């Protein structure tokens, strides 16, 4: 199952949202309603306590925001005055209509309704391939992915700088893993699953998923002759937990993660996920617009403070440059989907979007793509492309409790790019996110569109690659190159 730890509920559950009426503006809501700053018109009611995102105009103070939330039957969990976004809890089922559906949404409510409708227990987590080799041995011979981007050669020149802090926005990183213990910085780590940063160790360590630890190993596993070696083993890592134990990435968690990254001065953050609860989040639909705006504000703020964001394009094998066709292929409800609908955070301005290739350097069968969307590619593995002498075609990396395992996905491709970006940030200390992005593209190895992309040999092309060798929909500017990033 070529999953990058897919954190969205899928087409079946999305259809359930429409059936539950949750994609429409709630009854009584007026998107044009003015700010409500006084006491509630009706008494507060009691129901299921849910978490909400609330948008405020730029410049709104914490006191004003908290007063509005309280006056409308809610409690503020966190407020980010820099971007005018609050995370609130409320038991009143009218909380959205009280403040207005144009500025309030509960992703939790969307997901709860969808899961109840479909009897689902949430998205599946990543499936690890068996690892039968003993611990403590050198596994570098299995790291075909590092050879593909010449990271092994780059590490002979430099391993990166401890001054560079890289955020792993994911399911938590095992700070006691022998390959990661020296890299993880507890003082820079936090749990964000509630939308509010929590620095307690238990809040940012992994619990249910190996995904974050696997991603972290690809970025910065120690170069010690044991286990594996990451792309930039000399940099520091921050574990920023945004994936909950059910496998969901709520938008408020992502907002918290980016704001935390900015506050801690992270140079690069890895985002191997798509934001729940929608596959594509639309700027012109009730609820979805709030999520899109809140996450966009957080990303924009972080990038403006020197944080380079790198994100996976996802594992749905769809053309993100053609969202209408994507919606049809995935069976999304709501009719035509146009360019106002995007995969978050990969398609946001200032984010480096990464597709995946297998060991043969061809787009992985599961990887999404799109001309003008995918900016770079990197090894994410593909069972169809298994290199000689390796157990399978996936990527080997660290997993919790001192172990190692293989995973495939754009989630696995993305940390390769993050690692190279960390090497560049180590070399060019004052480089801005835009400058690092340009360097990544300039030093990438161009890849031509495949002459034939008929993966199942049925005579039909499984995807269409638009563009030319220097820039196309499958690979963007090409395969990221660690050696070129460090070589004079």
Provide key terms for this protein.
single chain; 488 residues; alpha/beta; Rossmann fold; 2 domains; seven-stranded parallel β-sheet; four-stranded antiparallel β-sheet; 14 helices; 27% helix; 15% strand
How do the strands and helices of this protein lay out in sequence?
Layout: H1 10-19, E1 50-55, H2 62-71, E2 74-80, E3 85-90, H3 95-99, E4 104-105, H4 107-118, H5 144-148, H6 151-154, E5 165-170, E6 190-191, H7 201-204, H8 211-220, E7 236-241, H9 251-263, E8 268-271, E9 281-282, H10 288-304, E10 308-312, H11 323-330, E11 341-342, E12 351-357, E13 376-379, E14 395-399, E15 403-407, H12 410-427, H13 433-443, E16 467-468, E17 471-472, H14 482-486
Parallel strand pairs: 5-7, 5-8, 6-7, 8-10, 10-12, 12-13
Antiparallel strand pairs: 1-3, 1-4, 2-3, 9-11, 14-15, 16-17
Protein name: Subtilisin family serine protease
Signal peptide: 1-29
Pfam family, one: Peptidase_S8
Question: How would you describe the overall organization of this protein?
Answer:
This protein is of the alpha/beta class. The chain folds into two domains: 10-118, no CATH class; 140-486, Rossmann fold. Helix content is 27%, strand content 15%. It is built from 14 helices and 17 strands. The strands form five sheets. Strands 6-7-5-8-10-12-13 form a seven-stranded parallel β-sheet, sandwiched between helices. Helix 8 (211-220) runs parallel beside helix 12 (410-427). The chain is globular, with a radius of gyration of 22 Å. 58% of the residues are buried.
Care to give the gist of this entry?
The chain has helices spanning 10-19, 62-71, 95-99, 107-118, 144-148, 151-154, 201-204, 211-220, 251-263, 288-304, 323-330, 410-427, 433-443, 482-486, and strands at residues 50-55, 74-80, 85-90, 104-105, 165-170, 190-191, 236-241, 268-271, 281-282, 308-312, 341-342, 351-357, 376-379, 395-399, 403-407, 467-468, 471-472.
């Amino acid at each position: 199952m070529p999953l990058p730890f897919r954190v969205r509920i899928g087409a079946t559950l999305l259809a359930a949202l429409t059936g539950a009426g949750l994609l429409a503006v709630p009854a009584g809501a007026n998107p044009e309603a003015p700010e409500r700053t006084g006491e509630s018109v009706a008494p507060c009611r009691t129901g299921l306590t849910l978490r909400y995102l609330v948008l405020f105009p730029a410049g709104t103070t914490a006191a004003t925001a908290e007063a509005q939330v309280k006056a409308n039957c809610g409690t503020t969990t966190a407020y980010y005055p820099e971007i005018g976004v609050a995370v609130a809890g409320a038991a009143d089922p009218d909380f959205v209509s009280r403040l207005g559906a144009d500025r309030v949404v509960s992703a939790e409510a969307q997901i709860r309704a969808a899961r109840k409708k479909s009897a689902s227990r949430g998205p599946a987590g990543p499936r690890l391939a068996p690892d039968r080799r003993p611990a403590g041995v050198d596994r570098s011979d299995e790291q075909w992915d590092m050879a593909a981007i010449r990271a092994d050669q780059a590490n002979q020149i430099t391993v990166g700088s401890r001054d560079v802090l890289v955020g792993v926005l994911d399911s938590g990183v095992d700070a006691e893993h022998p390959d990661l213990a020296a890299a993880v910085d507890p003082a820079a780590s936090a749990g964000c699953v509630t939308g509010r940063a929590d620095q307690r160790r238990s809040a940012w360590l992994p619990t249910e998923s190996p995904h974050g630890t696997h991603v972290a190993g690809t970025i910065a596993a120690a170069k010690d002759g044991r286990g594996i070696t990451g792309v930039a083993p000399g940099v520091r890592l921050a574990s920023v937990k945004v994936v909950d134990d059910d496998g969901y990435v709520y938008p408020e968690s992502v907002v918290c993660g980016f704001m935390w990254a900015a506050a801690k001065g992270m140079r690069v953050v890895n985002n191997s996920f798509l934001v729940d609860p929608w596959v594509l989040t639309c700027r012109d639909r009730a609820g979805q617009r709030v999520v899109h705006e809140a996450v966009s504000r957080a990303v924009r703020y972080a990038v403006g403070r020197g944080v380079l964001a790198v994100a996976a394009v996802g594992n749905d094998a769809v053309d993100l440059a053609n969202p209408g066709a994507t919606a049809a292929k995935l069976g999304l409800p709501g009719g035509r989907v146009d360019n106002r609908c995007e995969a978050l955070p990969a398609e946001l301005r200032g984010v480096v979007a990464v597709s995946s290739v297998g060991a043969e350097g061809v787009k992985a069968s599961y990887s999404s793509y799109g001309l003008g969307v995918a900016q770079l590619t990197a090894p994410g593995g593909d069972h169809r492309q298994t290199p000689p002498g390796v157990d399978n075609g996936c990527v080997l990396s660290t997993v919790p409790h001192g172990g190692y395992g293989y995973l495939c996905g754009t989630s696995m491709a993305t940390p390769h790019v993050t690692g190279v970006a960390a090497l560049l940030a180590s070399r060019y200390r004052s480089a801005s996110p835009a400058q690092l992005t340009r360097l990544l593209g300039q030093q990438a190895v161009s890849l031509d569109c495949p002459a034939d992309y008929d993966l199942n040999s049925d005579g039909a092309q499984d995807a269409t690659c638009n563009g030319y060798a220097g820039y196309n929909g499958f690979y963007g500017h090409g395969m990221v190159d660690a050696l070129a990033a460090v070589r004079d």
